[in-house]
Amino acid sequence: MNKILSTCLLAAALTFVSCDQDKKDPEMAQTENSAEDFNFKADEFADLKILRYQIPGWENLSLKEQKLVYYLTQAGLSGRDIIWDQNYRHNLTIREALENIYVNYEGDKSSEDWKAFETYLKRVWFSNGIHHHYSNAKLKPEFSKEYFDTLLKETNTDLTGEAYEVIFNDKDAKKVNLNEADGLIEGSAVNMYGEGITAAEVDAFYANKKSPNPEKPLAYGINTKLVKENGKLVEKVYKSGGLYGEAIDEIVKWLEKAKAVAENEKQANALGLLIDYYNTGDLQTWDEYNVAWVEATEGNIDYINSFIEVYNDPKGYTGSYESIVQIKDFDMSEKMSKVEQNVQWFEDNSPIMDEHKKDSVVGVTYKTVIVAGESGDASPSTPIGVNLPNSSWIRKAHGSKSVSLGNIINAYENAGGTDKLKEFAHDEEEIALSEKYGNQADKLHTALHEVVGHASGQLNKGVGTTKETLKSYASTLEEGRADLVGLYYLMDPKLEELGLTDNAEELGKAAYNDYIRNGLMTQLVRLELGDDVEEAHMRNRQWVSAWVFEKGKEEGVIEKVEKDGKTYFDIKEYQKLRELFGELLRETQRIKSEGDYEAVKELVENYGVKVDQKMHKEVLDRNAQFKSAPYSGFINPVLVAEMDENGEINTIKVTQPASFEKQMMMYSENFSFLTEKKRANGETKKEETAEAAEM
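RE: above sequence
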């Protein structure tokens, strides 16, 4: 719930290989270039651009710290198969078949059909399954069923039944469906509920779950799959010995190693509780872990690991598996700590109702970090900022951690351009503002969104959690609310007083221009003509922008301009727009605090879902001149461990893999713990992988 995504989604993961693995495939590792001549772009296909990112400051870590990063990232990658299975029940079977074809096909690889197959496979890799990572629509292969049959036959690949048919038919067309008319669960292909379960049954099941302490509600459903057995609803728990147990056992193994090299006692204690949680699946332990984790603020290394964000559950209960390993960026964190230190000022001066403000905003920490590894739901498509934990009572009593993924943002900035800005911006002044302040505004908006936005406000006494009260609209409401906090303060003189910008007014103008342009126009390039907006962040950007545009019409706050047959949005009254952002923030906080379902439904459905088809077609036509893909992902650094004569790690070097394809195949070779091939091989593969990873 508490992620912020860039306007062109990013992706990253980190892989570790041993020296022996490097010798087996020399193309898998190339020495990383210096920052000056680093090539950020690696590949482009379909609607995806694959970039590279660096890990600056790696050499400044101690060997013990490098080992901690190593073990945490190995733990993260060990759970990679989980997100594939959570995303769709046939994903792992389909992936195995596609990869077997890719490795064993010896026919014509220069044909258009084969190129279409490769592109389809790369898209499936990127999305962790057969549904688009952002739109949730099923990916459509651009090769025929007959050609696919030939590939299966010539490579002796076994793929039959529904797993075969679904690649080409219209079944399970959307991973996550948020249109209640089609059934939130019945219309969603995501594999978080068993066959034949309805949304009403889910609501009734969890309504009967009562937390021992109502003031500290447990996260029921966060680590389970709800299924029917003999006509009764039963939870299958994600834990060692339970659902996904084979992968979880691998995660635990590496977390144990990480605990042994923890930087301090608090960090080790948190890791121990996470291990206990994976072993038992106990929700009380989950809360105890989150409290320990959020209070472990010392040290240079941190991490996110478990079943966390609920975007992929149409009912908002079950968390997707996710792992991010982080190294503190000391320089940027020092600069941005000023936001953290003044979070109470922002709360006190917010336009929300006084009764919805916190008297004391506790324990918010904010860091700019260097990504040192991602997996699961965070990879390949990654956020650029994260604020956790999601539990409201823990956030209120113990605080939260906010991070901005600095090297991911840097890589995106280095690979970007200004051509699209010049096409869709209204005038030269707008372009100049964005070029001068756009990057700085993005970083500050991320900080304000994460540190102040998600930490601000409180629920009225007796009001249930947002997933209970706001249901399928909870995620988009929360992200829009946090966006509004950032937008409201980006033009505040307080930012100049804190030394975060030299001109808050100009910075705010650049931010407002970029946000409105994206919310009303440019983000539509991600949708096919005729589609509604489904993804939570896209929805929130549209309903925020559309609401202020409509409410400001009478005073001419934002003008819709037609020029040379093209549409533009020109902000005329920036201070009045700021006031409108404040009004909407006040209302979104009221909706959250009071649990007003009808109000959030009206807000999102009226402003955030439907698309002006004439505008959409125009945007797509204007964007067609740009060959750059609308989504970005990353080819991922590889750490190569070198050993001394006793077999102990004495150094770990950062290298870059040769290609996205090689990395994906290496993942499947070394981190598949839930596939049929893995099960058929028994423990042999597990032992080989563990041995290689230790080397």
